[in-house]
Amino acid sequence: MADENATEDRPNPRKVREGTVLSNAMDKTAVVAVVDRVRHPRYNKTVQRTTKLFVHDEDNDLNVGDKVRVQETRPLSKNKRWRVLDVLERAR
After folding, report:
1. For every one of its 92 residues, what pLDDT tens digit does the chain have, with 9 covering 90 and above?
2. How far apart are CA 21 and CA 30, in angstroms?
3. Taking the chain, what is the end-to-end CA distance rounded to the nearest angstrom?
4. 36 φ, ψ to 5°?
5. What is the DSSP letter of 15?
6. Who contacts 39 (Cβ-Cβ below 8 Å, separation ≥6)?
7. Torsion-angle region of residue 28: left (phi > 0), alpha (psi -120 to 50) or beta?
8. What domains does the chain contain, in order, with CATH numbers?
């Protein structure tokens, strides 16, 4: 198996996002909310856009409220295309 940290030499590097865990009710899966801030094209006001990502959590160690870094990966199921890189901050 290839080294998982060797994403820098890929011709098209995998996307990395940071977000907050919304749900961990599923087995080996967590739902992570990623917030993007974009400028509205007409009104030039900053708008927040939230995307829900289904993330593979092999050890079921994520809790609701954790801040995590996730990386794009091959399709693992119908909706799962991301995996956990590391936990940035645990929920209190």
Report:
1. 555 565 568 898 999 999 999 999 999 999 999 999 999 999 999 999 999 999 999 999 999 999 999 999 999 999 999 999 999 999 88
2. 7
3. 36
4. -115, 135
5. P
6. 45, 46, 47
7. left
8. 16-89 (2.40.50.140)
